[in-house]
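ok so i was messing around last nite and threw this chain in just to see what happens. nothing serious, just curious
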Amino acid sequence: MRLPPTARKALLTLHLVTSLGWLGTDLVLLTLGVAVQRGADPDTVYPVTALLGTVLFAPLSVLVWLIGVASALLTPWGLLRYRWVLVKLVLTTVMVGLVLFLLTPNLRHAGALGAALPARDRADLVIAPAVSTSLMIIATVLSTYKPWGRRPIRPARPTSAAQTARAGRTGRDRADRARPATPAALAGPARPAGPAAPAGAAGAAGAAGHDRARSRK
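result:
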């Protein structure tokens, strides 16, 4: 299935908007995490990060993944046809998994604890957005430059008409060998009949016999 040009452009625009929103939210979370490390009040910052992660960042990550897969399947690029598309799919899938199952729970936990959050967990709230932002930038570069070309496709085994006809002949030969022989075939070929006498010679012989019979009379 391929989309018409208008629908393809609309899907591409939606993909760009959601991806930019995801990257912007990621940068905001990184900024808030660095602000706490530099002395901002955790009781004020971490509830905001928990709200952003739960309400905006996690839904955007799922939406970006879904629209990206739809854009690949409904356009000539395909999902597994080009290397850069495959690499971008793997990166996006890893990011979505990290956001949903690691970062978002940590943000909620930080929002609940506030200033009581341990220093190690505070560092995680800086590292995770930094890694996510880096992967997002790599995915953007892949979409822009489209490196590595197309993946090699294994040639399918040919099923030509000659092979089909050969298989049909083989089946017919087997059927002929399995068929019982008829009496005519067992008797062998018929002997050819002798050559027929020419019509002129037969007429001449009959006329000569008739003349001999008249002379006897």
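not much to say yet. The two ends are 108 Å apart (CA to CA).
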